[in-house]
Amino acid sequence: MGLKTITVRTEHPQQFIDITHTVRLVVRESGVTRGTCQVFIPHTTAAVTINENTDPDVKQDLLNILETLVPSKSQYLHTEGNAHAHAKASLIGPNTMVFIESGQLVLGTWQSIYLCEFDGPRTRNVLFRVTSG
Ligand code: ZN
Fold first, then answer.
1. Could you identify which of 35, 50, 57, 105 might form a hypothetical disulfide with 132, taking C-beta atoms 3.0 to 4.6 angstroms apart as the criterion?
2. What is the CATH number of domain 4-132?
3. Which among 24, 38, 26 has a CA at the least distance from the CA of 104?
4. Whether the Cβ atoms of residue 26 and residue 40 lie closer than 8 Å to each other
5. Are residues 1 and 127 in contact, defined by beta-carbon separation less than 8 angstroms?
6. What is each CA distance from 103 to 4, 28, 40, 77, in whole angstroms?
7. E strand residue ranges, the chain
């Protein structure tokens, strides 16, 4: 299939949004039963990662850890006011990949896929390519 774009509206300046359900729908729609689903975030202040889906404290801990590493307010050269968001986006990264077997995402029991917002709220695009093989 070609590139598929999904739009996600974020609600907070910084948050992790579980997009696993959306990824499942994209994979189902593709008809691919064995292969890979690549996920790419075409933004410089957002990212994507896979992590714990049960205890919401893990998401908050991750945000807190990133805030400790890269404080929102500091002496940055970038004058847009979102230098921290650029740095956090690069630390997490713009892409991930999930295997598909029997038409299902191959994720660990405790894993979900998260869009990571660092400069919201905004409307974000998430790109997918589902490949058979
Ligand atoms: Zn900027």
1. 35
2. 2.60.120.460
3. 24
4. no
5. no
6. 17, 7, 20, 47
7. 4-9, 15-18, 35-40, 46-52, 95-101, 104-105, 111-117, 123-132
In this prediction, residue 4 carries a pLDDT of: 97
Bridge-based pairing of strands 95-101 and 35-40 is antiparallel
Whole-number Å distance, alpha carbon 129 to ligand 1 midpoint, is: 27
Centroid of ligand 1 to alpha carbon of 81 (angstroms): 7
Average pLDDT over residues 26-43: 98
Residue 28 has pLDDT above 80, yes or no: yes
Tell me if residue 76 falls in helix, strand or coil.
coil
Q: How far is the CA of 31 from the centre of ligand 1 (A)?
A: 38
pTM here?
A: 0.96
Q: Cβ(8)–Cβ(74) under 8 Å?
A: no
Place of tokens 């404080």: 71
C-alpha 104 – ligand 1 centre gap (Å):
37
Average pLDDT over every residue of 78-106: 97
Q: Where are the domains of the chain?
A: 4-132
